[in-house]
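Hi team,

Filling in the usual template for the complex we talked about on Friday. All components are listed, including any nucleic acid strands or ligand strings, so the model treats them as one assembly.

SUBMITTER: L.P.
PURPOSE: interface mapping
COMPONENTS: two
RESIDUES: 812
SEQUENCES:
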Amino acid sequence: MALVTGRSQRWRIWAAHAFLWLLIAITLFPLLAIVSISLRPGNFATGSLIPSEISLEHWKLALGIAVTNADGSVTPPPFPVLLWLWNSIKIAAISAFLIVTISTTAAYAFARLKFGHKHSILNMMLVLQVFPVAVALVAIYAIFDGIGNHLPWLGVETHAGLIVAYLGGVATHIWTIKGYFDTIPAEIEENAKVDGATHWQAFRLVLLPMAVPILVVVFVLAFIGVIIEYPVASVLLREEPNLTLAVGSKFFLYDQRYLWGDFAAAAVLSGLPITLVFLLAQRWIVSGLTSGGVKG
Amino acid sequence: MNPASVSLPRVATPSAAPATWLGRASLAVAIAVLLWMVFGLFAAGQPLVAVGVAAFGGAAVAIYGTARSLAWRYLFPGVAGMLLFVAFPLVYTVQIGFTNYSSANLLEYERARAYLLSQTSVDEAHAFDSTAHRASDGSYRLSLISRETGARFVTGPIGAAPGPLVLQPAESEPGAALSLREVIALRERLMPLKVQSPDGRVLSYAGLREFAPLEPLWTVNADTSLTQTATGAIYRPNRKTGYFETDAGERVSPGFKVSIGFANYSRMLLDADFRGPFVSIFIWTVVFAALTVVFAGALGMTLAVLLNWEALSRRTLYRTLLFLPYAVPGFISILVFKGLFNQNFGEINAILHALFGVKPNWFADPLLAKIMLLIVNTWLGFPYFMILCAGLIKSIPSDLYEASAIAGAKPLDNFFRITAPLILKPLTPLLISAFAFNFNNFVLIALLTEGRPDFLNTKLPAGTTDILVSYTYRIAFTDAGQNFGLAAAISTIIFVLVALMALLQLKATQRAEARS
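RESULT (copied from the run log):
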């Protein structure tokens, strides 16, 4: 585009490169530092970004293996990181599956069926989305405390209760899936109905197979959303073996018991897969939304 | 061949027949379970919950049991989830804001009263020393010696007949007494036992080696008041304060949950001890959210403009690397910063010490803590704005820049005359929603500073870096006596503010769409 390039252009490009590299250094510093710290011996060590001496003690502790020190004493793992990771994955997988299920059916109704108050319900969803869940924590705690009085397996301090609490957050996902259904011509299902299919069969056997890409995207988004969710989980789960990773991780950094190196290993161990999934999901979102439902 | 036309009828025919009787059976079961739950809740003294369950369950039965509404069969789970776990908590929060619900006033009136009436004390004067004995047939019996008279009694076998065990006078022990360890193993069976003493008192388990009459601490009077057995003082339930009180105003714990009107709100406005920190926290919340949007927005927009510059090479690499903070889970990167900013072991102070010889205490000084929060939040937030602005800049027609190049415009002119004015309109609603998000950025505060350092000289602990949401969390769930009512009242104020921001955002969106 730029037809005329002045003499100042060259040094401006250099300045831009320098500025960007400085910013990238600042951006990446915490991420590289945490990898380096996880490999340094001891919990209080400082040193250069490339560790001079590599020690795997923090990684062993993060993986639940007790470490035998040089003086013969044994350090047990401070926290059950793998158990927390498993809790997180279990809760996120079940929640995401249920969220996808109920969002998909609701999105189908919004995209294809006629019923009264459709617009007021859609507006209600938009309005509710505005209020962050962190502000209603008192009520959420009181609700699950009350449920627990009657159904102990669904109350406070249970994973089932937490999963149920996450099922309210379906509004955005319904919108996403509805948007995708809107791009698929309704004629395909109409044809199936002419062939004798019921509504449910047209939905289940015709529309759903075409919508698999968006369902995968929504599943991954819901999965990540639950994995990184902190406020509700921190209110409903308090006992150490019950915690999710998002709630448990902060216990590494208490002033009285400061486990910087152990935290670093646990953070890399749990953060790396989530980050990779997120970066992958970014790509899927683009490809999932641009390649429509009708091909050939 | 079209697979759908082949497989569909095959599925359709067999499923039609069982659907009728199987459907009816499961419908009947569902109704039965629902009725059982509703009556159970009524019996447990939870009429409102029972009505709620009946409404939701009834709606589900009506939708899935009858063929009336097809759409609602698909809609119900999602809409029910949103109503139950998003809409209802909002309404419930507002309601809690008008009550004294707290750790001191946790129970409903009936349950607080029942709790007081279940309290007992051991009547030591009429206690019996007890030993347990095993008979040859494997059954157990107790031998009791009255502390008052020294008389010895034995019971029949434990669990042989319903009702209280009856004591028989005895000359000696029925065989060797069980050791303490064996008695401990037997404790679960001893604790529910009732023993009828010869003078008509009912004795209960009072210790591993003791049975004694239990005296209730409270007795019921004809009106709703309770009499304290030990002192004879009369306590009346006070529906305004939520406690059982004497006429002199002495209270007994636990209190119960009552509506206290606008007391929580008047406390925010009128109680000087509370208002001081509350106003400071409110101001900091606004400043924090505004500065975050300004810093992260300015940085993100600058980067978007730079990365849109075609003369620059390696732009994709730069964009990918600069996007990373957004991809790392927040709870991990915030905690990483918490460690990096540590005064003694943190890498940031190590660098500052090497360069300038200073080791600032980021977590103890209010101003430094606030600066740290803004640094971390800018790091977390700029990639979002970078992506947003990049998308908006792409939509600006390139002939505008060509025209300005012919007119001899400088890059800064391009930015302030073309780019900024054109993307500011569509950006405004997004900036407002980013402001609203950071206004309630609970996770950052909770994981990085937990609101500390605290204000000195406040009755309720309040932090200089607390924002409104983290302050309510603190009041409700940590050190401040778990005052749910007060926390809910503050949350209600946040709802109003959030609603106002959403309205503002809607207006800005409409204006942006009207212009484009």
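MY TAKE: The first helix of chain B runs from residue 3 to 43. The two ends of chain B are 48 Å apart (CA to CA).

Thanks, L.
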